[in-house]
What does this fold into?
Amino acid sequence: QFRIDCLQACLAKLPERGSELPRLRYEENAAYPDMARTLDMKLEAVRKSLFRNKQQLASCVRLRLNQEAHS
It folds into this structure.
């Protein structure tokens, strides 16, 4: 449960469009072309943005988990 809380807190830190990409991809199982149409973005921009978002989220979650482990 704590990991989910960390992920949700990190998602909340992303800008609105940034949090929309993971939601579309992982909650709605949207394909990249569908995401591009929905958000009026180019396909490559969707791929790059989602990749960056995943990196940011992973880093944020790791940091929060490390902080919890050392507190």
Q: What stands out?
A: The mean pLDDT is 93. Residues 43-69 form the longest helix (27 residues).
